[in-house]
Amino acid sequence: MQNPVYRIALVLPLLGVAPVFAEDSSPLVQPLVRVVDLDVGEIATVELCDGTEASLRLVGVDEQRDEIRGAIRRSVVTVEVNGEQATIETGMYNLPRAVGGVQIDCTVTAGYNENGTPAFWGLDKDARLRLWPADSPWIRPGSFRYPVKQKWFATMTWYDNEPVDGGATILPRIYYHAGLDIGGSEALTEVIAATDALVVSVGEEVLDRHADDTPVSPRYDVVYLLDERGWYYRYSHLHTIDEAIKPGRTIDQGTLIGLIGKEGASGGWTHLHFEIKARQPSGKWGTQAGYAFIWQAYLAEHNPDVIAVARPQQFVRVGDVVTLDGSRSWCRSGDVANYDWTFGDGTTAKGPTVERTYDRPGTYSEILKVTDANGNFDYDFAMVQVIAKDETQRYAPRLHAVYHPTMNIRSGDPVTFKVRSFNVDGPGEEVWNFGDGSEPVTVQSDGNSEPRAANGYAVTTHAFEKPGDYLVKVERMRADGVKAVAHLHVRVDE
């Protein structure tokens, strides 16, 4: 039987009544997801949101580390759900799977606490598992929005569990990402409220009762919201915060929060750090992994036919075997018909996964085209950072390339392109090829010499004369001859 408060909260939006939020983080609406932390061998009975029960056992955990930093690059758990056994990959752009008559995912395992940041997750056991009924959405439809106004995978992302291979030097301490870093175009891409919410913190100002025993960590570029589920939402690195966003104000989903930027501890690349914090089974505050939620929201809002997924990023040495994986891609009509890969050396391959080796250091952007049975297609790009075999201190150069707008572009419309180089030797030239037969365009970014510099990105504008799908490439050569390449997929309508 549903909690009475839960039923009332469902009715209020239908009546046009603004939702009421608790003065603290007490949930007024129970989430659809159920979260359980288990040690290997531990058994639990989990009551799902529809009142049914699932029997769950954590059979084992397999964490696979690289030889460069000792960082976990893949974590797989073996679970038994209602007597059915399956292996599930942790985080890393994976969606919940059907096992034993329920849906289940694993958001984090204990190894991410080692040489990482345990406070991100609040996990005290071997693994965190989440469950939903077999036919349930992952988050209540209509209660959640995609938090930026741009297309899916418009540019670089860094999502849950990805080791952050960035900065000037290769450090022994691992920063495993928690939350969702969604790249965008500085001061152009709009950030919106993902949910109806109470504004609890803006910059350094925090609403009473939300400064202590909460995940709120105020900073000049950060906004925190609290929704009816008792979840806190962090919006970080904002270029500007809309003046109407004030602590104590109740806002609707879709309300403008501000513009995307690279403020705070952004590392110099323009992105929104979007992170959900919730009370976890340990009793601590920890990240509520949001990839499934933004996926569901984006599909509902934009109704794409195909989504190509070639992520996460790869970090290897020259000669190492790399598996590029497009199997996380999706099409609305059913199974993907074709996976087509095009590599920087001009070779091609087919299939959801392919193996590659690289004989030169650099940052590569390999092209994946995914097509469904009706001929609908989408592109994504696998970023592979390759360092020399004897390199222990220095990353390969890399690029952050963005464009705006990313949707509803028509022939002749001006499109703004921005790029910034990282791990290079100071300012230098980036070369754009727009894929439409036009002449290449050379620009010069600052090489991230000052991460928050207002003019750090080099900017150019281009208009496509004809409708079509364009693969835009930008590249930069470091003084030692090591090259970085990045791609963007630009769709131009009639």
Q: What tags apply to this protein structure?
A:
single chain, 2 helices, globular, Immunoglobulin-like, Tick-borne Encephalitis virus Glycoprotein, domain 1, 4 domains, 5% helix, Glucose Permease (Domain IIA), disordered N terminus, mainly beta, ten-stranded mixed beta sheet, 494 residues, nine-stranded antiparallel beta sheet
| CATH 2nd-level architecture of the largest domain | Distorted Sandwich
Structural class: mainly beta
Would you tell me which CATH topology of the largest domain applies?
Glucose Permease (Domain IIA)
Low-pLDDT regions = 1-18
Task: Tell me the Rg in angstroms.
Answer: 22 Å
Largest sheet: 10 strands, mixed
* Total count of domains: 4
- Number of helices, where a helix is a run of at least 4 consecutive DSSP H or I residues: 2
Distance between the termini: 52 Å
Descriptive report:
The chain is mainly beta. The protein is built from two helices and 37 strands. The model is unreliable at 1-18 (pLDDT under 50).
Short summary of the structure?
It contains 2 helices and 37 strands. The protein has 494 residues and is mostly beta strands. The protein has 4 domains: 31-133, Tick-borne Encephalitis virus Glycoprotein, domain 1 (Sandwich), CATH 2.60.98.10; 157-300, Glucose Permease (Domain IIA) (Distorted Sandwich), CATH 2.70.70.10; 304-396, Immunoglobulin-like, CATH 2.60.40; 398-494, Immunoglobulins (Immunoglobulin-like, Sandwich).
Topology:
Elements: H1 4-14, E1 34-38, E2 43-47, E3 53-65, E4 72-81, E5 84-89, E6 97-99, E7 102-109, E8 127-133, E9 157-158, E10 180-183, E11 190-192, E12 197-202, E13 205-206, E14 223-226, E15 232-236, E16 240-241, E17 250-251, E18 256-259, E19 271-279, E20 285-287, H2 291-302, E21 306-307, E22 314-317, E23 322-325, E24 330-331, E25 338-342, E26 348-350, E27 353-356, E28 362-371, E29 377-387, E30 398-404, E31 409-410, E32 414-422, E33 428-433, E34 441-445, E35 458-463, E36 468-477, E37 483-493
Parallel strand pairs: 22-29, 28-37, 31-37
Antiparallel strand pairs: 1-8, 2-3, 3-4, 4-5, 6-7, 7-8, 9-10, 10-19, 11-18, 12-13, 12-14, 12-17, 14-15, 15-19, 16-18, 19-20, 21-24, 23-27, 25-26, 25-28, 28-29, 30-32, 32-35, 33-34, 33-36, 36-37
